[in-house]
Amino acid sequence: MFFHIVLERNMQLHPRHFGRDLREKLVSKLMKDVEGTCSGRHGFIVAITGIESVGKGLIRDGTGFVTFPVKYQCVVFRPFKGEILEAVVTMVNKMGFFAEAGPVQIFVSNHLIPDDMEFQSGDVPNYTTSDGSVKIQKESEVRLKIIGTRVDATEIFCIGTIKDDFLGVISDPGANA
Amino acid sequence: MPRRRDCNDDAVHEEEEEEEEEEEDESYRRRKRRRSDFIDDLAEEDDEDDDNGGTGGSGRRRPRRRTASEFFDLEAAVDTDDDEEEEDGEDDFIVDGGAEIPDEDGGRREYRHRLLPQEDQEEDLEELTRSIKQRYARSAHVEYDEEATDHVEQQALLPSVRDPKLWMVKCESGHERKVAGRLMQEAINRGSELQIRSVVALDHLQNYIYIEACKEAHVREACKGIHNIYAANIKLVPIKEMTDVLTVECEAVDIARGTWVRMKRGTYKGDLAMAVHVNDMDQRVIVKLIPRVDLHALANKEGREVPKKKAVIPPPRLMNIDEARKMKIFVERKQDTRTGDYFDNIGSMSFRDGFLYKTVALKSTRTQNIRPTFDELEKFRQLDEGGNGDVASLSTFFANRKKVRFMKGDHVIVVKGELSNMKGHVEKVEEDIVHIRLDQKDLAVETLAFSDKELCKYFEKGNHVKVISGLYEGATGMVESVEGHVVNIISDITKERLQVLADKVVQSSEVTSDLTRIGEYELHDLVKLDNENFGVIIRVHSEAFQVLKGMPGRPEVALVGLREIKEKVEKKGNAQDRFKNQFAVKDMVKVIEGPYKGKQGPVKHIFRGIVFIHDRHHLEHAGFICAKSQSCELIGGSGENCDRNGKPFSSRLVPLRTPSRAPQSPMRSSGGGPAMSYGGRQRGGRGDDALVGADVKIRLGPFKGCKGRVVAIQGTSVRVELEAQMKVVSVDRNHIADNDSVSTAFREPYRHGLGSETPSHPSRTPLHPSMTPIRDHGATPIHDGMRTPMVDRAWNPMSPPRYNWEVGNAASWGSSPEYQLSSPRSTAYQE
């Protein structure tokens, strides 16, 4: 799920950036710094949409660096248990497949793939129904449900299932081609 | 004894029957009278005693005597009274009779004793019923009393100083019973001359028998002339230990239908079985087993009668009756009279649903502490699919388990009783009692106490858990699904599905693969298996390792035990890639040919021209890929690599380099060397800066022998901060010697640089803009030198590599050599 929230961060700025465009520098640094990062609490920070406020800078002893507390608005993405997501399959193997929904990697175990879908190894490993009508392979888009999330310091990893109503392939690159 | 009971029961019947019985009784009585006669002789007073107030607690001795007398009456010739005294205790133990039974028995016998004359006189029914009533009232009373026997009375039975002592006498191994029997015979023959009281031979104790006697001399006397006994070796058993000698550890055999047991002996030794029907009376149990039957052997046997005893035990396999029929084995279909179930009989074996139903003695099964493995349960379940088998059997398994570690906060589900299937969480654990609070809001007012057997841990899909025992011990993963008591977990590391019993799982947030170490070998170590074979440990089981062998082209995984590993390879070599680029451990390489073409990752091990690469996205073999160094390509600014590696050891030629640094890695060592060649970009003499911070020893001059750290270089002299004295001195460059043991202060930044090199690579570009400050910094070498070790370390823990540039540790760029490397590289990136 996406959220638009306000976060705060202490930014350290090298004295060489002090000048007219200090604020700009600060913002660009902030963007570089936080966009794409992930925290367990808030999830992935997708984009900074605005700066709320920049506090007073504090010169750190001995280094000349200045610390600014910056409040910024950002869009975060945090996957939740039970959430339905659409994701792109990135890798298929006999244990299941990996899919990505934006920054989140989701693993769907073969036990969580409908029983009628079988793993087909080969050049393009895929899961196919017995009648061949539905195929999950790399680049397929699937709709899945998250059944569990694991939050590491720098990553959120999810396990998903497509063994449920209305879940499964939503567009098949093989079919379009 | 059963006979006697019958007799009592019969007595309650109608008179007609009574008449008939009379005759039966007559013969019995005749025998009885003979016995009672001598009982009377022996212990008339005792009997009287009993009549008056005889309760179970009235003493141990007497009942024992009873048993003995009974024994002699039924099985042995009539003896003199004195002998009895000797024998009784002994018999008691050999017969293995409990104290209670004879006790009760004794009581009963007396009634009969009194009753019989009445019968003789053919008393009327009324009289009889009355007497019977009386009798049963009595016996009930007696039983009650027995139950009420409390600790104090028990204590009173314990041996005291006044009682005869127990002596431990050595005898020949295997002859314990024989010796005891000899002594018994001796007692019969010699009567009261033999002054010992009893002899005990314990089945579980070899080489010794116990003799009860007042004096050691009596024991010696008794042992005289008996073979296989070593009377020279007599030990007194301390009073405290006397009870232990004769304590029978009674295993409370609590076996019910559906309990898991294990077979103790025979073909099925160690096999798991399920008790189907328990007959407490004759201590037999019908168990359900997976048959180990060799149909071929059976067919042969039927056909040609070849009684060839096979040494090999056939593997367990469910019996297929049709198959057996095809092989012309005679199969008989029978209906069990008791249960009405149909069984297929082959010879003496009966089968149903593929399982073998076998009647075995309770003693030949092990009932305590059975922990069926998951596989075994699975086998049993296969056929029971859908039936009541799953849950029921598993729940009995749970009832059977020894110790469950419930902890406060654990999520549990009730598996037994009227509240079953209620979920809750543990509030408090007291021994076996677990207090839980139900999740249901309206029921959550107070905690409920459950026996731990009634509860089972409960997990939900998506829980992150850790396996705490069993095959997968230590593994962590996410719960994929829950089937009854079985939790399916998707391992974090391998993404495999593990099936584990809920009992063996706890909620946890940590992420580990498994065990990571046995002995000195750890996960991901490179080990030598023998002179030719080596490999990387990719998985640690509880007793073995999975090793990915160093065979490029085809992944071969071997399961090796701890002993099969010869040694750990610590050597960190380097190798050349296809384009003759040198690379070392931790460098990024890409496989450019072979089955793993396209895979890339940091090199973890290099050995004999074989590299082990760890690709995070490679799911098999814990991400390890084995390839020839020749089929790899060093990635990450390989252009410079050629350049630098063209003269990898040139740095050695540079005067005043620390020798220990040079050979470690060409990449690293080149820091100093090329510095000269890049001189155009960097200030001249920059290479010397590498010396700054180095620990040196002064060879000549007034400070000869002193050690110190170089803080600055000024022309041909260096400023050295002495270790021993609080001062900085100027020494001629030629008067110092590089210390072999380069201080850690120096190395620290080094190591860091290396580790971070790979991941930080993409962020090299931003490094570049800050080149200017570096130069500025360089202008004040003193500052440089002082900062390096300290600043670097200070920053490391906080800042991931990507932040390096903005964290602005400019000082370290100037001084630590790895950054010198990277700066030229980064230019390449930009272009």
Structural notes for this entry:
The complex is a heterodimer of chains A (177) and B (831). Helix content of chain A is 10%, strand content 53%. With 177 residues, chain A is mainly beta. Chain A has two domains: 2-77, RNA polymerase Rpb7-like, N-terminal domain (Dna Ligase, domain 1); 83-171, Nucleic acid-binding proteins (OB fold (Dihydrolipoamide Acetyltransferase, E2P), Beta Barrel). Chain A is elongated, with a radius of gyration of 22 Å. Chain B is an alpha+beta fold and 831 residues long. Chain B is 35% helix and 24% strand. In chain B, helix 3 packs across helix 5. Chain B is extended, with a radius of gyration of 43 Å. The N and C termini of chain B lie far apart (105 Å). Chain A binds chain B through residues 12-14, 16, 29, 32-33, 63, 65, 81, 91, 93, 95-96, 107, 109-112, 146-150, 152, 157, 159, and chain B through 461-464, 478-481, 488, 490, 492, 495-497, 511, 617, 619, 773, 803, 806-808, 810.
- Count of individual domains of chain A: 2
Radius of gyration of chain B: 43 Å
* N- and C-termini, Cα separation of chain A: 31 Å
Largest sheet of chain A: 5 strands, antiparallel
Any idea what the shape of chain B is? extended
Organism (chain A): Nicotiana tabacum
GO molecular function, one term (chain A): single-stranded DNA binding
Pfam families (chain A): S1 (PF00575), SHS2_Rpb7-N (PF03876)
GO cellular component, one term (chain A): RNA polymerase II, core complex
Write a concise keyword list for the protein shown above.
heterodimer, A: 177 residues, mainly beta, Dna Ligase, domain 1, OB fold (Dihydrolipoamide Acetyltransferase, E2P), 2 domains, five-stranded antiparallel β-sheet, five-stranded mixed barrel, 2 helices, 10% helix, elongated, B: 831 residues, alpha+beta, eight-stranded antiparallel β-sheet, 41 strands, disordered N terminus, disordered C terminus
